[in-house]
């Protein structure tokens, strides 16, 4: 049999010879996924290359684990294979037939439908129903300067429950401030401490007011745990109000050496807004005196918790 021919008798471009041991494991896995996707769609390598508008040799090198493909090249392959880039690069939600079928069911659904699906899955895999003490724990979320600490303390005093700043618990567990965790061990380590701290607070306090770090929505597992075990309130404010309050507290870091601090703040808020919006309740604190803000917040909470 001609060595340049595929098992099905079709011509096959030769890949650059390379020892398997010298290949990058990620590129090897990437090539295997492309081969699998191509086989799933019944395409020859030549046909895939033609549909994608690339050379057959380029596809051959990629499939053999020696092709360092550009993002544009992978996008062309994804379009030709009628799949997402996630399927090619190896996102977990593309790793099995069940994952793909679940993705298809959820694809194109609106936000309300996706929320119902998430809540149903949470109840299915969390045991039965949500934590019975969930409404006894009020967790305040939002960016720095939203009023989580100030309003949280007032609310805890009024309700006669403990007030917990999650950053303090993280510091106790780690033995150093969160800023040092970041600088010494990176954001991944900080997120692990954040989840451990939240789990500890939930286990210890059936009733409490919790001020959470602004970035708690950055980790899906931690945020899901928060939504499951706490009644969450998004304290909102305009970017200008956030910045004004942080600086008024004596913290000049947002402005230090950063002439684009306001633009950065707006991007962070925009990037997190969809996650903050998953809270049970949202409350805008912009342009209000502290006393009025607290009374309105307390009144809204009393109504919401009484009807749920």
Automatic annotation (TrEMBL):
Cofactor(s) required, per the database record: Mg(2+)
GO CC annotations, alphabetized: cytosol
Residues of the HTH cro/C1-type domain: 34-88
One Pfam family in the UniProt entry: HTH_3
GO biological-process terms attached to the record: amino acid biosynthetic process; aromatic amino acid family biosynthetic process; chorismate biosynthetic process
Keywords of this entry: Amino-acid biosynthesis, Aromatic amino acid biosynthesis, ATP-binding, Cytoplasm, Kinase, Magnesium, Metal-binding, Nucleotide-binding, Transferase
Subcellular location: Cytoplasm
Binding annotation for ATP: 145-150, 253
EC number(s) per entry: 2.7.1.71
Family from the record: Belongs to the shikimate kinase family.
NCBIfam families assigned: PRK08154.1 (NF006015)
Protein name: Shikimate kinase
Species of provenance: Pandoraea terrae
């Amino acid at each position: 049999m001609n060595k340049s021919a595929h098992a099905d008798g079709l011509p096959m471009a030769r890949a650059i010879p390379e020892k398997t041991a010298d290949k990058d494991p990620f590129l090897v896995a990437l090539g295997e996924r492309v081969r699998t996707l191509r086989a799933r769609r019944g395409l020859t390598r030549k046909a895939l290359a033609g549909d994608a508008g690339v050379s057959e040799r380029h596809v051959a090198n990629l499939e053999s684990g020696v092709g360092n493909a550009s993002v544009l090249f992978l996008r062309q392959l994804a379009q030709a294979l009628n799949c997402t880039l996630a399927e090619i690069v190896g996102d977990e939600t593309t790793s099995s037939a069940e994952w793909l079928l679940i993705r298809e069911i959820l694809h194109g659904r609106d936000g309300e439908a996706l929320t119902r699906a998430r809540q149903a899955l949470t109840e299915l895999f969390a045991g039965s129903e949500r934590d019975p003490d969930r409404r006894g724990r009020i967790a305040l979320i939002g960016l720095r300067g939203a009023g989580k600490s100030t309003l949280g303390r007032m609310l805890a005093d009024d309700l006669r429950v403990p007030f917990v700043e999650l950053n303090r618990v993280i510091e106790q567990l780690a033995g150093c401030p969160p800023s040092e965790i970041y600088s010494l061990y990176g954001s991944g380590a900080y997120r692990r401490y954040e989840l451990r701290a939240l789990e500890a607070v939930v286990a210890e306090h059936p009733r409490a007011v919790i001020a959470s770090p602004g970035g708690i929505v950055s980790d899906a597992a931690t945020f899901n745990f928060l939504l499951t075990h706490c009644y969450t309130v998004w304290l909102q404010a305009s970017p200008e109000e956030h910045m004004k309050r942080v600086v008024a507290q004596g913290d000049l870091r947002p402005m230090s050496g950063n002439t684009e601090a306001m633009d950065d703040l707006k991007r962070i808020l925009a990037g997190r807004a969809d996650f903050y919006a998953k809270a049970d309740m949202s409350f805008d604190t912009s342009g209000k005196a502290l006393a009025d803000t607290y009374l309105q917040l307390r009144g809204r909470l009393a109504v919401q918790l009484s009807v749920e």
